[in-house]
């Protein structure tokens, strides 16, 4: 794919630079002045090609999300493999996963019990947090939820309930703002 430099575009940092952009295809790349797509290992800008800084940032961000999603999928796959090798899926129904998550969250709280927050053992916190996250991921997998989507939807709801001009600097619940 060959593109023309966009007005006001800046030169790439060197004669050839690679940025990640698997998810940005077609017109968006062409409009941004990029020369070719090379899988998720990147977009190669060759010679005198130019790319708009905003377009470059959008492409980099887009691929970072793709890479993060792939990494999260690998974590979930590894959790499934661990579970299935032990024939534990029979115990991993949504109710029991939610209960296990709650128990592990209590163990995480125990790491902070009767001490200043900074006195908690970071290794214990890390271990218990990993258990909480593992059960949360398995629970979302049991419902076939898109983790990124449900979290972003929840952030959108919280932005409505907690507008910055009312909630900034306060720990009050949205019903008390």
How would you sum up this structure, described in words?
By secondary structure, the protein is mostly helical. It folds into two domains: 1-69, no CATH class; 70-176, MazG-like (Helix Hairpins), CATH 1.10.287.1080. The chain is built from six helices and three strands, in the order E-H-E-E-H-H-H-H-H. The longest helix has 33 residues, at 53-85. The radius of gyration is 23 Å and the shape is globular.
Strand order in space, largest sheet: 1-3-2
Provide the β-strand percentage band: 5-15%
Question: What best-fitting shape do the alpha-carbon axes yield?
Answer: globular
- The total of helices stands at 6
Structural class category: mainly alpha
Characterize the biggest β-sheet. 3 strands, antiparallel
The fourth-level CATH homologous superfamily of the largest domain is: MazG-like
CATH topology of the largest domain: Helix Hairpins
Low-confidence stretches: 1-49
**Nearest-integer average pLDDT:** 76
SSE string: EHEEHHHHH
**Tally of extended strands?**
3
At the first level of CATH, what is the class of the largest domain?
Answer: Mainly Alpha
Radius of gyration: 23 Å
How many independent structural domains?
A: 2
Helical percentage: 40-55%
**Architecture per CATH nomenclature, i.e. the level-2 architecture of the largest domain:** Orthogonal Bundle
Q: What tags apply to this protein structure?
A:
mainly alpha, Helix Hairpins, disordered N terminus, three-stranded antiparallel sheet, 3 strands, 6 helices, 177 residues
């Amino acid at each position: 794919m060959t593109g023309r430099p966009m007005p006001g575009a800046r030169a790439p940092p060197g004669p050839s630079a690679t940025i990640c952009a698997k998810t940005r295809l077609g017109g968006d790349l062409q409009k941004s002045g990029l020369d070719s797509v090379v899988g998720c290992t990147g977009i190669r800008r060759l010679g005198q090609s130019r790319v708009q800084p905003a377009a470059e940032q959008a492409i980099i961000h887009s691929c970072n999300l793709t890479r993060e999603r792939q990494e999260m999928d690998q974590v979930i796959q590894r959790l499934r493999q661990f579970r299935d090798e032990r024939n534990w899926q029979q115990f991993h129904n949504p109710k029991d996963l939610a209960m296990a998550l709650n128990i592990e969250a209590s163990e995480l709280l125990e790491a902070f019990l009767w001490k200043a927050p900074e006195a908690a053992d970071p290794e214990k916190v890390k271990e218990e947090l990993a258990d909480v996250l593992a059960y949360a991921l398995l629970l979302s997998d049991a419902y076939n939820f898109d983790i990124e989507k449900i979290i972003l939807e929840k952030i959108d709801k919280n932005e409505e309930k907690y507008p910055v001009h009312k909630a900034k600097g306060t720990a009050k619940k949205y019903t008390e703002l």
